[in-house]
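User: I'm curious whether this sequence folds into something compact or stays loose and floppy. Could you predict its structure so I can see for myself?
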Amino acid sequence: MENSSPQRLWHRLEANETLTALDSSIEGLTPQEAEARLGAYGPNILAEQDGINYAAILLGQVANPLIFILLIAAGVTAAMGEVIDSGVIIAILVINGLIGFFQEIRAEQSVRALRRMVNPRVHVVRGGREMEIDGSLLVPGDVVLLVSGVLVPADLRLLQTVELRVDESMLTGESLPAEKNPERLEEENLPPGDQRNMAFMGTIVSGGRARGLVVRTGASTVLGGIAGDIRGIGTVRAPIQEKIARFGHLIGYVVMAASALLFMLGIGVGESLRDMFMTAVAAAVAAVPEGLPIVVTVALAVGVGRMARAKAIVRKLPAVETLGSATVICTDKTGTLTMNEMTVRKIFDGSRHWVAEGTGYDPAGALQFESGPDSDREDLLRLLRVGLLCNESSLIMEDDRYTIRGDPTEGALIVSALKAGLSLDGEQTAHPQLALLPFESERGYMATLHLQGNRKTLFVKGGLDRLMDLCPECSRAGSLRGTLTRIAGEFAREGLRVLAFAVKDMPPETLTVTEKDVTGGMTFLGLQGMIDPPRPEALEAVSGCLRSGIRVLMITGDHADTALAVARQLGIAREGDQALTGRELAVMADDELILRLNDTAVFARIAPEHKLRIVERLKARGEIVAVTGDGVNDAPALKAAHIGIAMGRTGTDVAKEAADMILADDNFASIYRAVGEGRVVFDNLRKAVFFLIPTGIAAIWSILVTVLLGIPMPYLPAQILWINLVTNGLQDVSLAFEPGDPDALNRPPRPPREPVMSSLLWQRTVLVSIVISVGVILVYLGARAAGAELDRARTLAMTTMVFFQFFQAWNSRSETRSVFSIPAFSNPLLFGSMVLATLAQIAAVYAPPLQWVFRTTPLSLPDWMLVLAVSASVIFVVEIDKALRRRYGIMKSS
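Assistant: Here's the prediction. I'll summarize afterward.
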């Protein structure tokens, strides 16, 4: 017996060859053989993941140089007696660590969700007897019985089928059930969606029945391979996590070097060892942006709330910013770009063309004659009546929306008839059904017998080629056959699925319908062309993405012609573009695929491993990749992408668990809106960084200059910690609530490798830090020159530094726009934080207990006027810088 490995091409074997290869028969295995094979192959389950290492995840939350610096700073400040500052730092670290800890635990649930999809009980044939067993006991060689409504319990090579249709959307993304038959397939490199003689674990039988041979179980199945892919991908770090980590390294090295230099210079000019150690530590605490981790968390949390209002539910905080930096969105077609509801778009009634308005299963809309008056509708109504009554499905209202119970194609025919004014109840009463010949793929049509007054009529619907052979006026080459072929071709080029309709008068004594009744003598009525239509709002969203510099790629399990038609309607593909199919991709080298990614926007008949490979190649090119999906087939790509986006309504549990974000309305337009929110999040992070870094550098500059001049430092260590607490405690966090620049969606994505601090911000950081340090030193030296006592001069220097940071917070509200063009109260939290900080600083200057702690003295009105005039200078310097950059076009961020 040969091994039932996933690599074996079972679809290329004849049914009897498959039985021979697995040493089985149509009567199934004996119970003894099945038990022996269970020991060899193991149970038919998807293997559990290894246990989650909670300790490793927890330790991973502190594996960051910025975190190490903050831990050291917290310890030193606590030793110095600065318990409040130390407590703030520790609280920040604990909150940030807990959020990351719980996020990573939730991210490891994908494979467990896959296990829940395996059917627990199955019908098998063993030793010639039918029996029900637990699905985990299936082994290769077992013969399984399938009926409508059951889940396929393993990968099966079909041996016998009767009208078998299988819903494979969770594997292929195709909206219509796949028709199955046991015939051998010769082609190689067929994706699962094209393997018509196979049924795969986890898919659902939507109609018919079959007998299939188990060829793969458990981890060897296609579903098991997907589970393995998910486990093998691991955790993908979001770009913002990488950038913050790199920024933390940089700040850590700079702060340690600056503090060491300050310490050595102080010792060199005669300062005491204790004083310089305390000063160096205080300066390091002032320079380290300990508020950055909490600002990142708050900014992302604010983005989560805003995205939720845009119908995008975020499961992992970094995903908020990642979507804003996406350069490519790989989207599936069905349900995301389209309605996932088949809709008749065009009708040919044998002589005239009609266009159907409206989308989906809602019967609202009308049928319009393409040109001229539409007063004559008799031929149209005859055609639609056949589609309405030669039908086994029904239209129902469920959760305040119309849906179809049965075949989506038949549902579309019901809706098109209702749009023309036909009533289902009225038509069924006027034309009661007497008999039915169900659709079979071998026949290519369905027929129903109806009573019309005193006459009996046969209604037939099916494929165009088959019905033309049955209609005398179409069976021979001629004008009508040529016309129908041409019109069907036009419909197909628009991605429409074409169905043909015919009628036949039957003798009064007819009671049943047979294939002989349908053969010959039919009167052809016309064609209906249908498609799963694009969402109207998706067109605008795709257009917006393209304007924003984001490429949109369609990756679908659907057929190439249909995918291209939808892609062209949405603007994803242009006329003349070609789709790359899974079969082509399977034999393509990685280098060639990377080249094809430059000019290919549509990928059709794609298998799960193909989608994953496309995502990996895009990432290798340096793209920031967002991926949408709803099926199990999408899960590996969702997890491998920088941001995976699952569908909330139609998505499987597996897809949702693998994703970073869930769309509550399954709508691509919600992704576009969320992109804007993601960009605002990153902008706000930059604003907070630009607020924190220059002021910290300025504190070190001012201390360094006075040490080199050989004069007392402008502030005591306790005063440095106060400046840090009163200015950085609220303003940095309040910047996370900035509403964002209006042009957030009108600019291209940031270069993927662009750091948190752009070259523009570094240049402006140097400028601002110089302005602040020079201003503080001049105020300090001026006070000393005027004869002020040291405590009063230090009070002036400390207060000036505090107000410099207030004005720097206003500067930070936009990189490019003038602060005077931004409404002062558009961020009430920032305004409120500055009021509270001002009151706190006034208390530090005038309240006796705080005067004792910080060695401050009261300031006069002229002192306050001097402080405000000098500290406000930073506003005007930055405004001049912005104006010059706007004028000379040098506002680039990178």
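Summary: Residues 1-6, 106-119 have pLDDT under 50 and may be disordered. The chain is about 50% helix and 15% strand.
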